[in-house]
Amino acid sequence: MRFTESLKPTPQKYNKENQTIETTVKGRSTRLYPVPHTLAKILESLEPLSADEMDTPYYSLLHKRHRPQKNVATLQKNLRWNWYALRDSAGVKNDLRAHDLRRTAATNIHRITGDVLAAQQLLGHADLSTTAAYLKPLEPERMRELIEQLDTR
């Protein structure tokens, strides 16, 4: 999920039974995302919600209860600073961006499944060539193994 997509889901878009959430994505289409168990616990802990809160994006509800913000631009700035603080406290190198996690997830899905279409679906790309740009090339040793396998055939 892109950073901007993560700011859009509302409680009424969360399906507690299936633990999925719908959000508007790039290109103004909608996408259904699975919600990890730990995140589902957090979302479900916000109940009961008022009728107004059901239409309020989760990021706003969570932030409002912990640290009220005046506008989305301020919230986005604070979320980015929280990312930097989290990254620094974890001892992760400074040049890691949140977007790099999308690349890592796509590469890992592709390596685990061997299915580039699974990576495409995970990233929400309409064009497979866009997904291909996200996938890291194989390590030199793995490339040698593949070339050797091709030579034996």
Shape: elongated
Number of domains: 2
Output mean pLDDT. Answer: 77
Which structural class best describes the helix and strand composition? mainly alpha
Distance between the termini: 41 Å
- Residues in β-strands, percent: 5-15%
Number of beta strands: 3
- Helix share, percent: 55-70%
Number of helices: 9
Low-confidence stretches: none
Main sheet attributes: strand count, strand direction, barrel closure: 3 strands, antiparallel
State Rg: 19 Å
> What's the order of the H and E elements?
HEEEHHHHHHHH
What is the strand arrangement across the widest sheet? 1-2-3
Describe this protein's structure.
The protein has 153 residues and is mainly alpha-helical. The chain has 2 domains: 3-66, no CATH class; 100-152, no CATH class. The protein contains 9 helices and 3 strands. The protein has helices spanning 3-6, 37-44, 51-54, 58-66, 72-89, 100-113, 116-123, 128-134, 140-152, and strands at 14-15, 20-24, 30-34. The chain has a 3-stranded antiparallel β-sheet, with no helix packed on it. Helix 6 (100-113) packs antiparallel against helix 7 (116-123) and helix 7 (116-123) packs across helix 8 (128-134). The longest helix is centred in the middle third of the chain and has 18 residues, at 72-89. 7% of the residues are buried. The model has no long low-confidence stretch (mean pLDDT 77).
